[in-house]
Amino acid sequence: MPYDFNDPKYWFDRAEEMRARADLMQDPGNKEIMLGIADDYERVAQRACGGLRLIVIIEELTTMGRRFYALARTTSDPVTKERLIALGDSYLGQADQLKRERTVTQSVCPTSVKRNVRMSG
Fold it and tell me: pLDDT tens, 33-91?
Protein backbone atom coordinates (compact mmCIF):
# COMPACT_ATOMS: atom_id res chain seq x y z
CA MET A 1 0.00 0.00 0.00
CA PRO A 2 1.53 3.37 -0.99
CA TYR A 3 2.07 6.03 1.64
CA ASP A 4 0.24 9.35 1.48
CA PHE A 5 3.13 11.77 1.96
CA ASN A 6 0.69 14.68 1.97
CA ASP A 7 -1.07 13.33 5.07
CA PRO A 8 0.32 14.89 8.28
CA LYS A 9 -0.49 11.70 10.19
CA TYR A 10 2.14 9.83 8.17
CA TRP A 11 4.82 12.30 9.27
CA PHE A 12 3.59 12.46 12.89
CA ASP A 13 3.74 8.65 13.04
CA ARG A 14 7.28 8.65 11.69
CA ALA A 15 8.28 11.21 14.36
CA GLU A 16 6.84 9.00 17.10
CA GLU A 17 8.67 5.99 15.70
CA MET A 18 12.00 7.86 15.74
CA ARG A 19 11.45 9.04 19.33
CA ALA A 20 10.68 5.47 20.41
CA ARG A 21 13.90 4.27 18.76
CA ALA A 22 15.87 7.09 20.40
CA ASP A 23 14.58 5.98 23.81
CA LEU A 24 16.20 2.57 23.23
CA MET A 25 19.62 3.97 22.30
CA GLN A 26 22.51 3.93 24.76
CA ASP A 27 24.92 6.15 22.82
CA PRO A 28 24.13 9.85 23.47
CA GLY A 29 25.33 10.92 20.00
CA ASN A 30 23.13 8.41 18.20
CA LYS A 31 20.22 9.26 20.48
CA GLU A 32 20.59 12.96 19.60
CA ILE A 33 20.65 12.10 15.88
CA MET A 34 17.43 10.09 16.21
CA LEU A 35 15.73 12.90 18.13
CA GLY A 36 16.82 15.30 15.39
CA ILE A 37 15.21 13.03 12.81
CA ALA A 38 12.02 13.00 14.88
CA ASP A 39 12.04 16.79 14.96
CA ASP A 40 12.51 16.89 11.18
CA TYR A 41 9.51 14.63 10.67
CA GLU A 42 7.52 16.75 13.11
CA ARG A 43 8.29 19.92 11.12
CA VAL A 44 7.22 18.27 7.88
CA ALA A 45 3.98 17.16 9.59
CA GLN A 46 3.31 20.67 10.85
CA ARG A 47 3.94 22.07 7.37
CA ALA A 48 1.58 19.49 5.88
CA CYS A 49 -1.05 20.52 8.44
CA GLY A 50 -0.75 24.06 7.17
CA GLY A 51 -1.48 22.92 3.64
CA LEU A 52 2.06 23.61 2.53
CA ARG A 53 2.69 23.17 -1.14
CA LEU A 54 4.20 19.90 -2.25
CA ILE A 55 7.31 21.58 -3.64
CA VAL A 56 8.25 22.94 -0.20
CA ILE A 57 7.87 19.49 1.37
CA ILE A 58 10.11 18.05 -1.36
CA GLU A 59 12.71 20.73 -0.65
CA GLU A 60 12.54 20.01 3.09
CA LEU A 61 13.03 16.27 2.53
CA THR A 62 15.94 16.91 0.17
CA THR A 63 17.62 19.18 2.72
CA MET A 64 17.18 16.60 5.46
CA GLY A 65 18.62 13.86 3.24
CA ARG A 66 21.68 15.95 2.47
CA ARG A 67 22.09 16.71 6.16
CA PHE A 68 22.44 13.01 6.92
CA TYR A 69 24.97 12.54 4.15
CA ALA A 70 27.00 15.38 5.69
CA LEU A 71 26.78 13.76 9.14
CA ALA A 72 27.92 10.45 7.63
CA ARG A 73 31.04 12.15 6.28
CA THR A 74 31.96 13.34 9.79
CA THR A 75 31.72 10.02 11.64
CA SER A 76 34.45 7.43 11.84
CA ASP A 77 32.18 4.63 13.10
CA PRO A 78 31.29 2.45 10.07
CA VAL A 79 27.94 1.29 11.53
CA THR A 80 26.82 4.84 12.28
CA LYS A 81 28.06 5.99 8.86
CA GLU A 82 26.02 3.24 7.15
CA ARG A 83 22.89 4.15 9.13
CA LEU A 84 23.23 7.85 8.36
CA ILE A 85 23.67 7.13 4.66
CA ALA A 86 20.58 4.89 4.76
CA LEU A 87 18.60 7.70 6.39
CA GLY A 88 19.80 10.16 3.75
CA ASP A 89 18.77 7.68 1.06
CA SER A 90 15.35 7.33 2.67
CA TYR A 91 14.71 11.09 2.76
CA LEU A 92 15.86 11.57 -0.83
CA GLY A 93 13.83 8.55 -1.94
CA GLN A 94 10.71 10.05 -0.38
CA ALA A 95 11.44 13.37 -2.09
CA ASP A 96 11.85 11.58 -5.43
CA GLN A 97 8.57 9.74 -4.96
CA LEU A 98 6.79 13.03 -4.26
CA LYS A 99 8.34 14.56 -7.37
CA ARG A 100 6.79 11.78 -9.43
CA GLU A 101 3.33 12.43 -8.03
CA ARG A 102 1.19 14.71 -10.17
CA THR A 103 -1.67 15.44 -7.80
CA VAL A 104 -1.79 16.69 -4.26
CA THR A 105 -4.72 15.72 -2.08
CA GLN A 106 -6.07 17.89 0.71
CA SER A 107 -5.13 16.42 4.10
CA VAL A 108 -6.77 16.81 7.44
CA CYS A 109 -4.39 17.43 10.29
CA PRO A 110 -4.90 14.97 13.16
CA THR A 111 -6.19 16.85 16.19
CA SER A 112 -6.53 13.98 18.66
CA VAL A 113 -2.79 13.74 19.40
CA LYS A 114 -0.81 16.48 21.12
CA ARG A 115 2.69 16.97 19.73
CA ASN A 116 5.77 18.46 21.33
CA VAL A 117 8.58 19.65 19.11
CA ARG A 118 11.98 20.13 20.74
CA MET A 119 13.24 23.63 20.39
CA SER A 120 16.64 23.78 18.72
CA GLY A 121 19.16 26.34 19.93
Answer: 889 888 888 888 887 777 666 777 788 889 889 988 998 998 888 998 998 999 899 98
Kindly list the domain boundaries of the chain, sorted by start residue: 8-100
Amino acid letter for position 3: Y
Which of 18, 27, 35, 24 is closest to 75 using CA atoms? 27
